[in-house]
Amino acid sequence: MKAAMSVFVVLGLLMFIGQQIDPQNFIASRINPDATGLTAAQFEVLVISGLSQGAMYGLIALGYSMVYGVLGFINFAHGEVFMVGAMTGMITSNKLDDAGLWQSNFLGSLTFVLLLAIVCSTLTAVIMERVAYRPLRGSPRLIPLITSIGVSFFIQNVSVVLLGPGAKGYPSLPEWLSKKRELLGIVTIEGTRLMVLVVAAIAMVALWYLVERTKTGKAMRAVAEDKEIASLMGINVNRTIVTTFAVGGAMAGVAGILWGLLFRSVVHTTGFLPGIKAFSAAVVGGIGNMGGAMAGGITLGSAESVAPLVLLEPWGINGVSQLKDAVAFLVLIFVLLVKPTGLFGERLSSEDRT
Fold this sequence. Notes:
By secondary structure, the protein is mainly α. It is 73% helix and 3% strand. The protein has helices at 2-21, 26-31, 40-71, 78-98, 101-104, 106-133, 142-163, 175-178, 191-213, 215-225, 227-232, 237-263, 272-285, 290-312, 324-338, 350-353, and strands spanning 168-169, 180-183, 187-190, 265-266. The protein is globular.
């Protein structure tokens, strides 16, 4: 399987290079006679799109990795925490738009929307931990895993009851934000995607500082390593676990706002597929590894943006742009075949390692 996938990828890449040199070369003219090749501008758009989407996957993946590192189970309801942030942003931004503040004071409005989304997503994650997961803490891992799936469907249906099943839109963004900009005279990028990359980078640096340079972060790392020893050392394990859920929820809230601003539409199932892909990103980077989660998100987002046209289109496969979801999971399979612990390695507790 690993050898077959490697051969497919290498041959696809070689055919893409040949197609770029001469779209009507001997192989391309027979396998893909409609081939035209990608221009530099088109490739640039694909890469930037992949990076911006991957940054959002990475922010969501952080929640999966943090919870797994502390509790040792996958919280499949984390995608709905992301959806709550996106829905909160949609409601708040539309109210501000109705009041005339969204366009006239966009930065102030965006800051308010972002903070409110973070608060709502954080509260959702904390309540989820307290009501659904804490009573099951000593149970076999399959039980909280199944519970998380139930919590996911519950939050989705609450959204349908409160807001209806139809898609909801964000208000129009200011023209100065949407227009394209040149960076260093080399790259041209939309202001919205630039904002996504900048905000994601700031959020990741803030999280790194929290985990690596504060007492709260040290407590989180100690609990992730061994809860019993951490408790004997005077660390409040319950409070640390709640803090972990809260931080993961805050990252999901940031991702939800960025998703809404970028795609301008949310629905009650908005968190499902991005949540699954973010979990895949966490596994690709190395489950329990926060840097790996962000890198896995970037890798997955870039792969699903670039790979369909670079690796699949040269084989003459039709409708490659519709196969980006399949490509994302093929990346997961390929990474697990080559390096089962993820690109940057797992970081597991002493209990999980044994």
